[in-house]
Amino acid sequence: MKRYEIYKDIRKRAVIMRLPISLFALMMTSVIGSLLFIIFSFSFLVIISVFLFNGGLYVVLTQLTKHPALLHFKKVFPTTISNKRESQLQYEGP
């Protein structure tokens, strides 16, 4: 009888093929688009290039999953927003 492992880390993040759900959806969209591209322009060079593109995309997405700091940009907004006036910035009316 076959034994199945229980996936206990579901609260951490759902993962399919070592990719989060959103990146997996991007990968599947690329695969479906590639299949359509192969169907409508059938050529051996196109088939090879599509396989290389999808393989490269998978490698890039898994590397981004392992090292999320590669796409870390500087924060634009402050961490807190307050309506309190600063002591140095006093409004001087007319």
Q: Can you tell me about this structure?
A:
- This protein is mainly α.
- 46% of the residues lie in helices and 4% in strands.
- The chain has two helices and two strands.
- A two-stranded antiparallel sheet has the order 1-2.
- Helix 1 runs antiparallel to helix 2.
- The longest helix has 23 residues.
- The radius of gyration is 24 Å and the shape is flat.
In terms of topology, how is this protein built?
Elements: E1 15-16, E2 19-20, H1 21-40, H2 44-66
Antiparallel strand pairs: 1-2
Helix pairs in contact: 1-2
Q: Short summary of the structure?
A:
With 94 residues, this protein is mainly alpha-helical. It is built from 2 helices and 2 strands; from the N terminus they run ββαα.
Radius of gyration: 24 Å
Q: Please tally the β strands and state the result.
A: 2
Largest sheet: spatial strand order: 1-2
N- and C-termini, Cα separation? 86 Å
* Number of H- or I-type helical stretches: 2
Biggest beta-sheet profile: 2 strands, antiparallel
Helix content: 40-55%
